[in-house]
Specification:
Number of helices: 20
Radius of gyration: 22 Å
Strand order of the largest sheet: 3-4-5
Shape: globular
Structural class: mainly alpha
Helix content: over 70%
Length: 467
């Protein structure tokens, strides 16, 4: 048995099998959630590359799997990331049962996760681009329920993600062709620019991100939340892994300056657009962009505290997006419009969903007592000390996003003229209340949770030596 079989092949085969059981939605969703939780537990408990004794049995979990001459490698360095990814998947698949997601959600969700982990594990790096593209293609049935037309937001998502693939392939071919010291010095900066364009298209960096709010507005928020939670995080980790492997990139101060500027532009523009949004589902998209901007800015500082802040920010990011997507899904499932003109009385009909929606947005804004506050505070302190010229622009973006959230709050608290009946069921309230509980726990006891997730940086060990 090898680690890639356990965490890549088994989810892929399980997803294909669940596709055959797609008509039995509860069974397929339950198996997907249970398998994800089981794989998360195994990633936490089983060391890779060491002999495990179970009674009289001796089992060794090998690090590598070779397919068609290409190797897939998972080591103990990847185990913390596997725990985070599969725990998040277990939560999303479990929530999908309660929120009555379509029959393709669980099967294709597992296959998407398998492709993303394969991209993180494959060597040479350039094949990661093909696996990310496979994950994007598998996301389309997940985003478009059976029988519904493909909206323009999904089409643009596919176009921009596909456009990024050839750039990554070309850059991966250059940097993976051998000793880069033998290359013409003029080639490497050009390859770095090509690599940056590829990741900019994948991550939806300004000005390539306008498909994100369109996607969240035109698709079911739960499916969009699943894709926009796992795909950008996996892409960011893939980028860190690649930078860690290439010494020339690690030593390039210009590259990290460009990453800083890209992150700053995402924070500013997402904050300004959020301030003028009249549709909460589009604000969801700008929240994703806002979070990615902070992640890029933390990476661009190129210091160990910056990388640690990036890693610590993954949990509140995933949790905030999950609570926000769940709250919007409750409203969507009850045919409740989310534009400002139709929000009067919504708090009377969906009290827990509205509270979850507002608090998730406030958490992303960095309001005290919520999950996002400790990381936002640390990030702002780091930016102020390392890049004082940028902090004013970052605060401007923060202010714009906060204004957008306050506008949402002012509209959702308007009461209807007549008494309204509560439309949430107890299962929907339960999952939202659990999410809200963790929003507060992460905010009140950040050290308990964040210290454990820091270990995901082992994926890029060379970056741990940053100054």
């Amino acid at each position: 048995m090898s680690a890639p079989i356990l965490w890549i092949v088994i989810p892929l085969v399980a997803g294909m099998t669940l596709w055959l059981l797609r008509r039995r939605r509860w069974l397929a969703g339950g198996i997907a959630a249970g398998l994800s939780a089981f794989l998360a537990g195994l990633a936490a408990a089983l060391p890779i590359g060491e002999v495990i004794r179970l009674g009289g049995l001796q089992i060794e979990l090998a690090e590598s799997l070779f397919i068609l001459g290409r190797s897939f490698n998972l080591t103990n360095n990847e185990r913390p990331l596997l725990v985070v990814i599969f725990t998040a998947c277990a939560v999303w698949f479990g929530g999908g049962l309660i929120l009555r997601q379509h029959r393709f959600f669980a099967p294709f969700g597992l296959m998407v996760v398998s492709a993303l982990i394969g991209a993180l594990a494959v060597q040479p790096f350039l094949y990661a681009a093909l696996l990310v593209e496979l994950a994007v293609l598998l996301s389309i049935p997940l985003l478009v329920p059976p029988g519904e037309p493909v909206q323009s937001g999904v089409q643009r998502f596919l176009i921009f993600q596909t456009l990024g693939m050839p750039f990554i392939l070309l850059a991966g071919w250059v940097f993976g062709s051998g000793d880069i010291a033998q290359f013409d010095p003029a080639i490497l900066p050009r390859a770095a620019v090509i690599l940056g364009l590829g990741f900019a298209l994948w991550l939806g960096v300004f000005p390539f991100y306008f498909w994100v709010p369109q996607l969240t507005n035109q698709t079911h928020p739960y499916s969009a939340g699943f894709v926009l939670s796992l795909l950008p995080v996996s892409t960011l980790m893939l980028g860190l892994d690649f930078i860690s492997q290439i010494g020339w990139l690690r030593a390039s101060s210009g590259m990290f300056l460009i990453i800083q500027l890209a992150g700053m532009l995402m924070i500013i523009t997402a904050g300004i657009w959020a301030a003028f949004q009249d549709e909460i589902s589009r604000l969801f998209g700008y929240a994703v962009i806002f979070e990615s901007g902070y992640a890029l800015l933390s990476i661009g500082v190129n210091t160990l505290p910056g990388y640690m802040i990036f890693a610590a920010g993954l949990l509140p990011r995933l949790l905030g997006l999950f609570v926000l997507a769940t709250a919007l899904s409750v409203l969507k499932n009850h045919d409740q419009p989310t534009d400002f003109d139709h929000l009067q009385g919504i708090f009377q009909r969906f009290p827990v969903a509205v509270i979850g929606l507002v608090l998730a947005l406030f958490s992303m804004s960095g309001i005290p007592l919520l999950a996002g506050f400790p990381v936002r505070l640390e990030a702002l302190e780091l930016f102020a000390s390392q890049q004082p010229l940028l902090i004013g622009w970052v605060l401007l973006g923060n202010l714009g996003f906060l204004i957008g959230v306050v506008r949402v709050l002012l509209h959702v608290v308007r009461l209807a003229d007549q008494p309204e009946q509560r439309l949430e069921n107890w299962k929907e309230r339960g999952i939202l209340l659990i999410g809200l509980l963790f929003l507060f726990l992460f905010g009140l006891m950040p050290g308990v949770f964040y210290q454990s997730v820091i270990f995901i940086l082992r994926v890029a060990p060379a970056l741990l030596a940053a100054r």
